[in-house]
Specification:
Layout: E1 13-16, H1 17-25, H2 27-36, E2 40-41, H3 43-64, H4 73-90, E3 92-93, H5 99-117, E4 125-126, E5 130-133, E6 139-143, E7 147-149, E8 152-159, H6 164-169, H7 171-184, E9 190-200, E10 203-211, H8 215-233, H9 263-268
Parallel strand pairs: 1-6, 2-3, 8-9
Antiparallel strand pairs: 4-7, 5-6, 7-8, 9-10
The chain binds iron/sulfur cluster (SF4).
Iron/sulfur cluster binds near residues 32, 247 and 258.
Length: about 270
């Protein structure tokens, strides 16, 4: 997917939601993507991005005509598959994968989105780049939330199953709640994840999981973002703990060359 373009706010240091999450996951991964500009991905990352592209088209149709049910199932599947192919051709894919089964998975996940999640989505805004100021700091938060509904911020995740605890812990959703306030002038009533996860080959399940955010979450976010800024400014590059699921060939495009990963770990992946 093309990178979103955010307006600068003069005198403010800007950071995107994905960069905050990336840095907290793994400082090395953040600096690799920033400094080398590698267009490296894993096949699972492309699958998620392809389903999000199809969901975007579906939501945009509903926003133009709120009485519409969006794109057809066939159109959603076709957009997701085309998007997978286009991004796969334009990127360096770093995990082992077979194109046929991954395209089948992309089609099944997109179909699950359209049949199970889309009927309940009433978007008031989708995939717009938004910038907001972090209160009391010269820091601008940037993000492109998947969709806002009236009173709700929802993000679409395809792949790993999400839990209530994951929703409560999500820094990304807290930032998106700040972006909602920037657009709507008030905090959202709730935040949520539309989770699409594979239960077995070609069978994908969906679930919407809600959570809340309150004042103390925004105070905590401010401490986190200020610490991230200090770490980045100082060039602090702490690698992920080896037992984290995302520090793996399946999920990190830098795994095979990362200086923090030894050959013993590479052999078992
Ligand atoms: S392989 Fe692990 S330590 Fe290296 S960049 Fe990826 S997540 Fe970080």
């Amino acid at each position: 997917m093309p990178r979103p373009i955010y307006p600068d706010i003069e005198g403010y240091w800007g950071i995107s939601t994905s960069d905050i999450v990336n840095y907290l996951w793994c400082g090395a991964r953040y600096f690799f993507s920033k400094e080398f500009g590698w267009n490296r991905v894993t096949s699972r990352m492309i699958l998620g991005s392809a389903v999000a592209s199809a969901a975007k088209v579906d939501n945009k149709i509903k926003m133009i005509d709120p009485t519409s049910k969006g794109a057809s199932v066939e159109e959603v599947v076709e957009i997701a598959v085309e998007s997978f192919r286009a991004e796969a051709n334009a990127s360096e894919i770093m995990d082992r994968f077979q194109e046929g089964p991954m395209i089948d998975s992309t089609a099944s996940a997109a179909q699950a989105f359209k049949l199970n999640l889309s009927p309940s989505i009433k978007p008031i805004l989708c995939e717009e780049p938004i910038v907001t100021k972090l209160e009391g700091e010269h820091i601008a938060l940037r993000g492109t939330p998947d969709y806002f509904q009236e009173g709700e911020v929802i993000d679409l995740k395809t792949g790993k199953a999400w839990s209530r605890a994951d929703v409560a812990n999500s820094i990304q959703l807290t930032v998106y709640a700040c972006l909602y306030r920037e657009v709507k002038g008030e905090w959202p009533e709730r935040v949520g994840i539309d989770s699409i996860r594979r239960v077995r080959s070609r069978v994908w399940d969906t679930e919407r999981i809600y959570g809340e955010r309150s004042e103390s979450d925004f105070v905590a976010l401010k401490h986190v973002v200020c610490s991230v800024k200090r770490g980045i400014d100082a060039g602090v590059c702490i690698p992920a703990s080896p037992n984290q699921w995302y520090c793996s060939r399946k999920w990190c495009p830098y795994f095979m060359e990362c200086p923090y990963v030894g050959s013993a770990r590479r052999k078992i992946e």
